[in-house]
Task: inverse folding
């Protein structure tokens, strides 16, 4: 594994790399509350064939973490990764996204098809079906109430209290954290403790235009999302751990309307943290699908 510190659009960014420099690139985008190192278990199963590139996204780890919420608009997050692809040689590359990284990956693939050849999503959701389910007032609305808490002023201070106890509660959230060894947890806490990082991480939620309904109280006055601009023309693989309690399977309904070339693999015995729980199985699916 190699560690790189670079400048993207005049701001400092950091990424980890596994594999040979002349191998096909897999750009691996983490979500909340992770960082580049979250891909280590999966990358070691793929590095013999691919050049795995895992950046700390804006607000995370050793990358730029501005304080303003406006600096976390989707277009800016996507712009970071477009600039990283250009830095790596211009693409097109295969993009893998998990959780919030999936949101960036979907928009990156839709807006910059010349930079993205294939799209792989691991327990992440397309923004249009996700907004539909969060606004419906049903199970996904209930599961997403934590987003409203995170958007409150000062939530980052609450997350840091008592050695990140509240953040660890969000991390586990009725899901299997047996993969979290003491060394792994210490590495996460090192990243969370960097100045301004918790605020940067939470600002992703604050900057998002997606709305969350109260349970039993559907929202009907939602802004229209640009469906045509969020349609993917690349081959798309979705790998889904069926035990996810944060993102529910209803969010997958209608995904094929936005991704006509869609393949779905469901994995039993895994949940939202599928990259850590089933890295060998996930890697085998990716290798087979990539051909």
Result:
């Amino acid at each position: 594994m190699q560690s790189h510190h670079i400048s993207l659009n005049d701001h400092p960014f950091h990424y980890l790399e596994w594999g040979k420099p002349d191998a096909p690139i897999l750009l691996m985008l983490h979500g909340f509350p992770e960082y580049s190192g979250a891909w280590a278990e999966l990358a070691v199963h793929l590095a013999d064939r691919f050049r795995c590139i895992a950046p700390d996204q804006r607000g995370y780890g050793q990358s730029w973490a501005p304080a303003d919420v406006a600096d976390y608009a989707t277009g800016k997050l996507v712009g970071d990764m477009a600039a990283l692809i250009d830095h790596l040689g211009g693409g097109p590359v295969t993009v893998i996204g998990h959780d919030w990284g999936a949101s960036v990956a979907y928009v990156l693939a839709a807006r910059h098809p010349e930079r993205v050849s294939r799209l792989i999503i691991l327990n992440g959701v397309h923004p249009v079906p996700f907004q539909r389910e969060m606004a419906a007032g049903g199970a996904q609305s209930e599961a997403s109430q934590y987003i409203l808490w995170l958007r409150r002023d000062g939530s980052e201070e609450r997350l840091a209290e008592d050695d990140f106890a509240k953040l660890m509660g969000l991390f586990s959230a009725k899901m299997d954290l047996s993969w979290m060894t003491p060394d792994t947890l210490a590495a996460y806490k090192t990243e969370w403790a960097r100045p301004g990082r918790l605020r940067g991480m939470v600002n992703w939620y604050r900057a998002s235009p997606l709305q969350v309904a109260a349970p039993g109280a559907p929202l009907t006055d939602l802004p229209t999302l640009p469906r045509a601009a969020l349609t993917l023309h690349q081959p798309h693989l979705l790998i889904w751990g069926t035990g996810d309690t944060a993102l529910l399977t209803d969010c997958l309904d209608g995904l094929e309307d936005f991704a006509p070339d869609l393949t779905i693999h469901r994995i039993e015995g895994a949940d939202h943290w599928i990259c850590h729980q089933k890295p060998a199985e996930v890697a085998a699916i990716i290798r087979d699908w990539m051909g």
Strands lie at 2-8, 11-18, 25-29, 51-55, 93-98, 116-122, 236-241, 262-267. The chain has one domain: 2-290. The mean pLDDT is 97. The first strand starts at residue 2 and ends at 8.
